[in-house]
Design goal:
The protein is of the alpha+beta class. The protein contains 17 helices and 35 strands.
């Protein structure tokens, strides 16, 4: 992309729509945050952009969306039909014979395409790609007509072994195309030409139920933007952290399943590497969820397969993200056993937390932060509410939590945060300790509107080295939209023993994949700064079910080279090899990445004129295991090199940062805040061994009077 352009990243979440505008000519950045409107996301999207800049002046809009994810989780996708090979109608229902409750028989599963919308036809392709039974075009048309009459808005075709030879699927699509009334007609060999029937069927079915929903949303959004004078590029973030065109997203909406959270991880990785901390664990706390991902060596981890909910399996490259229902809008309640629970149910943006004054009656994490003084009730983020009602929040906490548990209001509010923090800490341990990573070697990067409010507790509970709070934490995912590369992936099943692999055929397949994947980049009309091609093989030992990803180095490899690459990857994953056991090559995975310009983070650094005195605001009381008089600062006005010791609160339009007693925050050259443990070298805070200790937070704070709620 050439200079002198305005680029806007937009991340539509469950509670807020976040926007990040970047002027490539001046390095100027602006942020915006507006409430999301469920069911009318396009309206909030357009309103938020217009608040930053006139649409005709914008050269590119990059969008991270959760429309597809929400449709699947809430089972609000389109009514779709499925045509499959005779005898395989129930693959979606059988899954992998897993159960919702591993040790019990409770819970059920309803496929996204119900049984009466799944039809069988006579056809058979064998595993070696030879066709035993060809399709009957008349039977296909009659079957499609029945599904259409039953209300199908989209249709997918999944035939057995079509990954080995898609001829029957393509013939079936050709037979049906003339009678199908829309473009929502897809075959599995286009969506996922990969071995394993359930995963291929599930991914294709999920894509079908999303096509009318996501396609309609994007059409409405594109039309609204174009009608308002926008004439630039409109791109959509994929779950793999790359971007694609609106047309590709409407055709392959399943690849947007974790679009917004993936953009946040891309931005976090870029910020962390520039700041000198390439090993980070991201923690995106929004209004509805807590999204966690691990970045090692500056590279986000990619998974070949993800499960959005029980039985909803998507096999397409995705950034590995663990999500739990713990956000600012998560509702606190005392269950029938008398145990305090927080989430996963969320108040969302409507009615929202009680303190919003929009009709919410049940207390949330945000209400607890307001009652404890951590969020400034007079200056709420987002700019849409004049003030927050702390008294109403306290009343709701008293009624729903404090009275049932026999606690005071402040203790109950703190208990809500401790339960929420415990759930978040569990998610951080899941992606670190349980996967063999030492959290002491990782830096937490909290972002989202609420991430930096919980950073201190998570550092302490998990044992992380420090926290790195980005310059604009509340709109990090929107920033990720701006800097994400364009990426297209493809998988092809080889299913050969390594001893039988033809290196020439492998390299021919790699070359063909590179040509095919380069075509959409050539058509995008974007001036990339460069391109990168990646190839990897899914390999395992004979008899094993699971595979390891084996990155292929540049150049031509013979079988010995492939064997060496496999052994390096396998030993890295499992710590040992299995000498003498034959090796199998299952899939070839390829990606072509168009590199887009990265933002120079120094362009967003504090100006030389910034000063600590100018950033200071009147102090206020904050509860952290008791009342403290906390210093308050305008975070964006802090100078480079400033050190703020807790207790302190840093406020900015898109987020609030809490520096707990015993912690200190340092502003780096990019304007990031490095949050670390404070204290003298010989004793941990909050106790001090010397009256001359350099850490003022070691001095105990006298108890303060509680407010009269």
């Amino acid at each position: 992309m050439s200079g002198g352009r305005l680029v806007v990243g937009v991340d539509v979440g469950g509670t807020y729509t976040d926007l990040f505008l970047f002027d490539e000519a001046t390095g100027r950045a602006r942020v915006g945050k507006v409430p999301s409107t469920r069911g009318q996301e396009a309206a909030g999207f357009a309103d938020g952009i217009i608040g930053l800049a006139p649409l005709p002046d914008i050269s590119a809009i990059v969008h991270g969306t959760t429309v597809g994810t929400n449709a699947l989780l809430e089972r609000k996708g389109a009514r779709a039909g499925l045509i499959t090979t005779q005898g395989f109608r129930d693959v979606l229902e059988m899954r992998r014979r897993d159960r919702r409750q591993t040790w019990g028989l409770t819970g059920n599963f309803v496929p996204v395409i119900e049984r009466d919308m799944r039809a069988e036809v006579a056809e058979r392709t064998l595993a070696d790609g030879s066709i035993l039974t060809r399709i009957d075009p008349a039977e296909l048309r009659a079957t499609a007509q029945r599904l259409l009459a039953a209300g199908a808005e989209a249709l997918c075709i999944v035939f057995l072994n079509s990954y080995a030879n898609p001829e029957n699927e393509r013939a079936a699509r050709a037979a049906i195309r003339d009678i199908w009334p829309n473009q929502h007609l897809a075959i599995s060999s286009d969506i996922l030409p990969e071995i394993r029937e359930f995963e291929r069927t599930s991914t294709t079915a999920l894509n079908a139920v999303l096509q009318p929903v996501v396609g309609g949303y994007l059409d409405t959004l594109d039309g609204s933007l174009r009608g308002g004078g926008f004439g630039g590029e409109f791109l959509i973030v994929q779950s793999n952290g790359g971007v694609m065109s609106v047309e590709a997203a409407a055709r392959l909406p399943v690849r947007t399943a974790l679009s917004g959270p993936a953009a946040g991880v891309i931005a976090a990785a870029h910020i962390a590497v520039e700041a000198g901390f390439p090993d980070v664990i991201t923690g995106d706390i929004g209004g509805t969820s807590f999204d966690v991902s691990l970045v090692a060596g500056g590279t986000p981890a990619l998974a070949a397969q993800s499960t959005l909910d029980f039985g909803l399996v998507v096999r397409t490259p995705m950034i590995e993200i663990t999500t739990i229902g713990a956000g600012g809008g998560s509702i606190a309640r005392v269950d029938a056993a008398g145990i305090l629970q927080v989430g996963p149910e969320s108040a969302g943006s409507t009615p929202g937390p009680v303190c919003y004054g929009q009709g919410g009656q049940r207390p949330t994490v945000t209400d607890a932060n307001v009652v404890l003084g951590r969020i400034n009730a007079e200056r709420p983020i987002g700019g849409k509410l004049a003030r927050l009602d702390a008294e109403a929040a306290a009343t709701a906490i008293a009624r729903a939590v404090a009275d049932p548990l026999g606690l005071g209001v402040m203790q109950a509010a703190e208990a809500i945060l401790r339960v929420a923090n415990a759930r978040m800490a569990g998610a951080l341990r899941l992606v670190s300790i349980e996967r063999g990573h030492d959290p002491k070697k990782f830096t937490l990067m909290p972002f989202g509107g609420g991430g930096a409010l919980h950073a201190g507790a998570l550092i302490r509970d998990v044992g992380l080295a420090r926290a790195l709070v980005p310059r604009f934490p509340g709109v990090t995912s929107a920033l990720g939209c701006v800097i994400a590369d364009m990426r297209h992936d493809r998988v092809r099943t080889l299913n050969r023993m390594l001893a039988e692999l033809d290196p020439a055929a492998l390299h021919a397949a790699m070359d063909e994949a590179e040509r095919t994947l380069s075509e959409p980049l050539d058509r995008a009309g974007i001036a990339f700064t460069g391109r990168r091609v990646e190839h990897a093989l899914d390999m395992n030992y004979a008899g094993q079910t699971h595979t390891v990803a084996v990155p292929l180095p540049p150049g031509r490899l013979d079988r010995a080279g492939v064997q060496a690459a496999f052994e390096a990857a396998y030993a890295g994953a499992y710590g040992r090899l299995l000498p003498g056991v034959a090796v199998r090559v299952l899939n070839l995975r390829s990606a072509v990445i168009g590199l887009r310009p990265k933002i120079d983070l120094l362009s967003m650094a504090p100006p030389p004129s910034a000063s600590l005195s100018a950033a200071a605001r009147p102090s206020r009381r904050v509860w952290v295991d008791g009342w403290h008089e906390a210093r308050v600062f305008d975070r964006l006005a802090l100078p480079v090199g400033a050190v703020i010791e807790g207790p302190a609160v840093l406020e900015q339009p898109d987020s609030t940062i809490l520096i707990e007693p015993g912690l200190a925050g340092r502003v780096d050259r990019f304007g990031n805040l490095i949050l670390e443990r404070a204290g003298c070298p010989t004793c941990p805070p909050p106790r001090c061994c010397s009256a001359t200790c350099r850490t003022t937070s070691c001095t105990p704070t006298a108890p303060m009077a509680a407010p009269a709620w």
